[in-house]
Amino acid sequence: MQSARLAPMTLAAAIMSVGLSTQINQTGENAANAIVGLWDTRDGAHVEIYIQENKYYGKFTYFYDEPPADGVDSKNPDPTLRDRPLIGTNFIVNFEFTEEKWKHGRIYNPENGKYYKADLELKDGTLKVRGWIGFRLLGRTVEWKRLE
Question: Is 103 found in the same domain as 84?
Fold first, then answer.
């Protein structure tokens, strides 16, 4: 008789446990994917951030000011890529979501053909993009606005 009383309680606990873990997973996934979409860099370009193979990437989709190097990747260290258009080019590459930020990726600067260490952080609807050489402390942060 006593085991019959425990069975419904155990079943209910199991169902609640599965529901709670699903909710936590969805919340974590939603937080990680919060940067996916279109962004205005506030300095002349629109960027689309997307997921590919569980990492985050960003590519130029539009220039509303004069694009760097007339819109081609002329400063790329790989001579075979110097004629490619900047529209559609990934310049945010290999970011992973960890500790409420997107880290361990690189940002490509088409104006000089160099990659920089970077991280991304979403605060109050603003995407803070910080790039640096060597030490994070010696970097620069720009703020992007989401496009609807």
Answer: yes
Q: Does the pLDDT at position 44 exceed 70?
A: yes
pLDDT of residue 29: 67
CATH of residue 91 = 2.40.128.520
Q: What's the CA gap between 140 and 129, in Å, rounded?
A: 8
Length of the chain: 148
Q: What is the largest CA-CA distance in the chain?
A: 81
Q: For residue 6, which amino acid is it?
A: L
Quote the pTM value.
0.78
Which tokens is 23 given? Answer: 């909710």
CA pair distance 92, 145, nearest whole angstrom: 16
Beta bridge partners of 142: 129
Domain residue limits at 129: 36-146
- Quick one: 21 and 44 in the same domain? no
User: How many structural domains is the chain composed of?
Assistant: 2
Asked if 102 and 95 touch (Cβ cutoff 8 Å), the reply is yes
pLDDT tens-digit series, residues 12-22: 333 333 333 33
For residue 22, report the phi and psi dihedrals to the nearest 5 degrees: -65, -40
